[in-house]
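Q:
My hope is that you can spare some time for a protein that puzzles me. I hope you can help me see how the letters and the C-alpha cells relate. Thank you; the sequence and its C-alpha cells follow:
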Amino acid sequence: MSEPLAMTDAQIPPPAVPGIIQQLMSKLSLPYQMVLDNPNIDAAQRVQAMLLDDQVGALLVLFPQSHLLDLAALNELTGRKLNPVRQERLDRMLGKHKLDGLPGLPPLTSSPCIYEEGLLTPPTVLIDSGHKGVLLEMPTPNFKSLLSKASSARFAVPLAQIQPNLDRPDDDREEITQAVQNFTARRIRQRLEETLEIPPLAETAQKIIKLRVDPDATVEDITGVVETDPALAAQVVSWAASPYYAAPGKIRSVEDAIVRVLGFDLVINLALGLALGKSLSLPKDGPQKGIPYWDQAIYTAAVIEGLTRAIPRPQRPEAGLSYLAGLLHNFGYLVLAHVFPPHFSLICRHMEANPHVPHNVLEQHLLGISREQMGGWLMRFWDMPEEIATALRFQHDPSYRGAHHAYANLVCLATRLLHQRGIGGDSQEPIPAELYQALNIEPDKALEAVNKVMDAEVALRELISQFHQSGG
C-alpha cells in the first residue's frame, strides 16, 4: 500500500454533499441541512441503509443505527433468503456515482424498500450523504415522504436489549454450554471439553509453553524446538530477513535469526502465537471487507510492542506477553468458527448487514456468547499464561482493572487506535482518558507508536504476506 501524500489545510477539500445527492434532493424539492458526523449523535436518529439480495432480486433495508438488523427475522417476514449484496457489486454501484457509502434514500435505487417501524419515531433523521463524515439532516415527515412506496415492519432488535457478558468470567463456562445446547438442540451431558471437540494443543506449542516458564531456557532450547517444525523454522527465518526488521546481512539459520535480529523473547512468543494460530484452521467464509486474521493479529501485536515501550519501565508489563496478547487477541474468532461451523456463516452475514454493531453484540444476540469468552476460556483450558486469558477475555472493557489488567487494556487501546485508521473495524469507539492513565501512557506517545507502525506499513504487509503464502 503506497504512502498517502500529506495534504496541507489549504489542500484538504471542504466537506460537501455529493453532486448526485444534491441533484436528487433538488428534484424532490426536499430541504435538508448538511451536518458533520460526530460521536455524540443519537444513534436512534441515524438511518442505516443496507442493500440485500437473493434470487428474487435486491431489497433496500432501512433501520435506525440504535438497532441490529436480524436477517433471520427479516427472511421469515418476507419468505426470502436475503443476504448483503457482494461487496464488488456494491462498490461498482457506488463507484458510478462517486459515493463512499450507500445513502438511505429509496429514490436513489430502483430496488423495493422495507424499513423498521421505529425509524420514524424521532422528530428529525440523519442520513449518510454518500461522502464519509457528511450527513443529511431533515425533519422526519419529509423523510417519510420518500417512503411512500416502501413497506414498514418489525425486523430489527434494539441494541440496548443485547448485553454481552463483559465482566462475569465465572459465568463463561455455563454460557458456553448453554450456547452449545441451543445450537445442537439436544441435552448435553458430557463435560464441556468433550462437547466442544477442541483439538489438543499442538506438541510444538506445548514445548514452547514449557520453555516460556523455564527461567533457565536458552537460545539453543528454543532453536531446537523451532527447528523440529520445518514450517515454523522457515517462518522465523523469513521474519528476521524481512524489511520490517531491516537486519544487516543474510539470515542463515534459526539461531542466527534469534541472536542477531529477533531476540529470545520475541521468537518464543511469535512461535507460540504461530503454533496456536495454526491449531485451528482459518474459516473460509469470513465476512466481506473483514481484515484477514493474521493481518489483524500482526498489526495489533506491532502496535502493542510500541505501546509497551512507551510505558515507564517500573510499570511496564512483560513485553513478550504483551506482544503475544496482541498476536492472539482475535483467537476467539477461530474458536467460534470451529465450535459453531454451521452457524459461522450466519454470524458473518449479520456482521456484513450490521457494520455499525460491534461483533460481540452480534454474537451475544445470535449465540448467547462472544468470541472473547470462547478465546479466554480456551486459553485457560490449554494452560496458557493467565495474563493471555485475561487479555483475550476483557479486551473490549476499557474500565477493566482486575488482575493483569495491563494486558487487556493494551489490547483495548491498540485495537481502538487501529480502528481509527480503518484497520480491524469501522467502529470509532472512544478512548477514555482513564485508559491511558491506567497504562501510564501519554496519548501523544500512543499516537507515536501507531504512526511508527503505519509508516512501516509496506514492510509490515510484506511480513504479513508470508503467513498467507504459508497457508497460515
